[in-house]
Amino acid sequence: MREPTFWILTALAPEPRYGYGVIQEVTRLSDGRITLQAGTLYAALDRLAALGLVEPDREEIVDGRPRRYYRLTTDGAAALDAETKRLRASVEAASAQLAARRRFGLGTAPS
Amino acid sequence: MNLERRYSYLLRVHPPGPRRAEMLATLLECAPPERVRPTGREIFNIIGYGLRARLGRPASTAIVVLAVLASLAAGLLGAAVAARVGWHYAPALPSGAASQELGATVFPGKRVWGGGDAETFVESGDGEQTIYGFADYWVKHDDTTRDVLAYAEGARDRLAAAGWDVHGDVTHESEAGSESSIDTAGFWATRDGLVLTYTGVLWGERAPWDSDGAASFQLTRSAPPWLATVAVAGGLLTAAFGWLLVGWASRRTEDDPARAGVAATAGWTAVLLTLLSALLGGLWNIQADRPGDEVLWLGLRALTGVPGAMILGLIVVALAAVRLRAALPPIAVLTCLIAAACWHAPAVLASCAPSGPPADPAPADVAHSRVARVYITQSSTDEQRNYAQAAISRVWGTISYSFHHDPTDDEYRWAYCDGGDLTGDSGMTVPYFWEIGLSSPGVFPALADEVAHMPGVVAVRHGEEYR
Q1: If I label B91, which of B16, B225, B307, B351 is the partner at 20 to 30 A Cα–Cα?
Q2: What is the number of other CB atoms lying within 10 angstroms of the CB of residue A105?
């Protein structure tokens, strides 16, 4: 799973959001590391919808402009869960290796 | 133009639909108040993903691969058509004073034969390849040119002094065969859109009536500089069209696997056939001692022949699978192309009753013709015919000849009646003739000079190419 995909699923996990809402939420959750471009977002949403991981929720008109909300499906939640477990396993493996490095007195990575 | 208008304009890259308005709202919400035009990154992002969105099937990688290859193939086809049209306007090979000056540079103080113009492309002697059309220039051997290596080196130096770019060294091969030795020397050079390939040949132990070779060169064109621009422009235009066409077919058949399957199969075959034809057309024609860009132009040219018609046929099938009506324009193009290739003017094939050799053709009709005929009276003796035939084969630029004395031969119709039938028994009384293949159109005067005054010969005519 590519990083934008992971963050989009993460942003949609608790509640449905519309385009700009997803972009804002991803920026907030990633501490400003990830700024999604509109093209990237909608291409990913199209792909995730085709794979059945997200689906349109509802549409609102605000200030004369359409806002279409998207929500995570059950499959989407399962995919995010599986990816989270995979990432956690990776993080734990790397942490264990770094701990071993400290035990051998090779110093720690600067934090 | 304000930011909203600029975004709307960019969003036209995306397929029509509510998504454009949705993205516009998102883009405007993301934009800080001071922004008046899209950033470079935004432009790149919107166009890139817009082109992807045009293909539909958001989860498919195969459609992207097909679209990329189809664009490449469509670009090649467009470049091939543009180049074919462009070659039509390529400058003629030198004639008149320019031709004489070149001949005098390579062969100073000698009687130079050949020269003149030629078609841009011709079939190679064995008919298996398309090659650049060329003009043969040569001098008959004398004591200086029989030293083929020294004379080739002299010619190279004279060309270099005249501003020609000489490529590589003079190659020299001396072969003492069992019956006849062969001594050859050659090099190639370029200048001002012309490619000159020099060859000096000396055959040893020849009969006194045979030629012992010649010092010669062949002159071809290079692609004019503007032709690359024309081809690239044509290619880019059709590449974009190819992308849009794949997108249209993909989105239209998204819910119809059967139609999509037929269209994809025909589409993939057309793409692979295009890439393969261009590649093989180029590779098949690679020659060590020629400019490298010729491979490219010959590869493109290979696409406009029979493979081009087959590719167009496959495109028709693919389009018809998507939507029957969409196949009509390419069907019309294909029909016109086949009709143009197969249609013959029936009036040309009128019958006639010749009483002697045909009149000289108009020079314009035979300017590019590589066919000639030598007519000899029926009362000529065997010996006279042998002499005439030896004279024909002595000419450096004759590559084939055949003798015809039977009026029922097909060749009689072309030699006497422009392809029409000979009426009555007129064929029984007219002169016999040789039909001769010339290496290049400018060889004809040399043939006439060599043969016209032989006993029994009544006419030497530059013939029109068969239609």
Answers
A1: B307
A2: 6
Q: Does A102 touch chain B (CB under 8 A)?
A: no
Cα separation, B183 vs B164, in Å, equals: 25
What does the block give as tokens for B180? 């006849």
**Amino acid identity, position A1:** M
Q: What is the mean pLDDT of residues B101-118?
A: 94
Q: Give yes or no for A49 touching B (CB within 8 A).
A: yes
Is B438 in a helix, a strand, or coil?
strand
Tell me if B253 sits within 8 A of B259, measured CB to CB. Answer: yes
Cross-chain residue pair A47–B57, CB shorter than 8 Å: no
Q: What's the sign of the alpha-carbon dihedral B19, B24, B27, B30?
A: negative
Residues of chain B numbered 26-85 and touching chain A (CB < 8 Å)? 26-30, 41-42, 45-46, 48-50, 52-53, 57-59
pLDDT at position B206, please?
85
For the entire predicted model, the pTM comes to: 0.84
Pairing of strands B194-203, B182-191: antiparallel
Task: State the alpha helices, DSSP H only, in chain A.
Answer: 3-12, 19-29, 38-50, 74-103
Give yes or no for residue B33 having a pLDDT over 60: yes
Residues 6+ apart with CB under 8 A from A86: none
**Residue B58: predicted pLDDT:** 93
A67/B30 touch (CB, cutoff 8 Å), yes or no: no
| pLDDT for A83 beyond 90 | yes
Any chain B CB within 8 A of the CB of A39?
Answer: yes
Q: Which tokens go with B322? A: 């998507």
Strand pairing category for B134-140 and B165-175: unpaired
Backbone φ, ψ for residue B159 (5° rounding)? -65, -45
Q: Is the dihedral of CA A74, A75, A78, A80 positive or negative?
A: negative
Q: Do B46 and A39 touch (CB under 8 A)?
A: yes
